Amino acid sequence: MLSYPFKFLSSSIRVSINPTYHEADIIDQFCSIDAHRYSTFTNPNKKKEFVFSRAALLQACGSISEIKYEGNKPVIANAFISLSHCKAGTAACYSDKLEVGIDIEVERKNIKRISSKFTSQKEVEKFKCSEQDAIQFIWGIKESLFKLHGLGGIDFKEDLDIVSFEWNETTKQGWGMAWIRKVCANRPYQMQCLVQVAKMGKHYICMASHRRKMNPFTSLRTQLREWEPSDAPWLYELNSDPSVTRYTGNAGFSDEKSALEIIHSYPNYQRDGYGRWIVIDKASKKPMGWCGLINNRWGIDLGFRFFKEYWGKGLATECASATMEQAKKLQLRRLIGRTLSPNIGSWMVLEKIGMKRFESTSIEEFASDYNLEPQDLKLWKGQMLFMYKIDL
Ligand SMILES: CC(C)(COP(=O)(O)OP(=O)(O)OC[C@H]1O[C@@H](n2cnc3c(N)ncnc32)[C@H](O)[C@@H]1OP(=O)(O)O)[C@@H](O)C(=O)NCCC(=O)NCCS
Question: Which residues line ligand 1 (CB under 6 A)?
């Protein structure tokens, strides 16, 4: 069975779980090392298990004859693969874009007894599912992070940190953000990863993926780059100015700590390959604000927010236009913009980069469909929400 059991990244990662296969077809395609390994197994169950795992790899990768080995780890040139098997289960994943790690487990009744070795109560509480499922998933997520990292020497409790997790009891799927905190010469920065899980029958399947940091891009006067934890103090400062948040609201940035939490659990770069980006002044290297894209239920939204001292200098137009060029490079088809009617600067920026207004809704009508903070609704009473779009 070829299935993609997770919520995100189905166009970037191929997954195979418990495939059906003809043994002879798989053996036929073994690379020379696998053929040799297979011939050395004397235990028929071991042979079966080996073919089963290579069948999953074949289904995920499209070919297994090119497999090479780094130590015991199977690798494929110019792509990332990961493989896992357990009692009566096997899983493999492949991506030519993202680093990946996968893990499949069956229920282990006694896992709770050893859970303090790899997780904490605080981490377990993030999982809104049964305690047994939570601990199984945490173990599986950490195994998949460990495989993705690939260099060993990882302490599951100290070095692997699951910072957010959402669970859907109906679909039995979950996802969240995690960090590999361990830094070494070959992995010189802490790695943010998207983690996804699914419970399929008696199997717990977990997958971690990591997208390399985007290379910063530039406009005439600025550089745009991804948010980093060290940006928390000034992001808080930006959102503390009521004239900056007058038409945007200030959800989540109530203090420096919550700004840091937002950065840590920000899924957009890992999930979508884009997000809101920090705008840095090329000359002074100081942060000026942010500009970028967000995938929401209206489409891919272009937005911006700058410190007041930088307003009225054409910066938003310059950065929005550079962001639109970046969106074209990412092969996005359409961008939208949303702004409140009195925020003239904002809708003028959208119009200056070529967006066209296609809808105008009263904020009250919009609020009936969308959760707005009561204080924002009060503040924006009687205003219109303008919707803009542009096809790239
Ligand atoms: C909205 C915002 C991003 C505009 O940034 P900016 O760098 O000042 O915009 P630009 O200088 O590129 O201005 C674009 C155009 O809008 C005009 N404009 C800017 N602010 C204006 C205002 N308050 N009233 C009327 N026109 C304004 C500019 O004159 C310019 O037009 P021009 O080229 O014909 O002179 C900035 O005011 C801001 O950060 N506001 C707070 C956050 C926010 O509201 N973001 C948008 C949420 S939807």
Answer: 244, 247-248, 303-306, 311-317, 339, 343-346, 348-349, 352
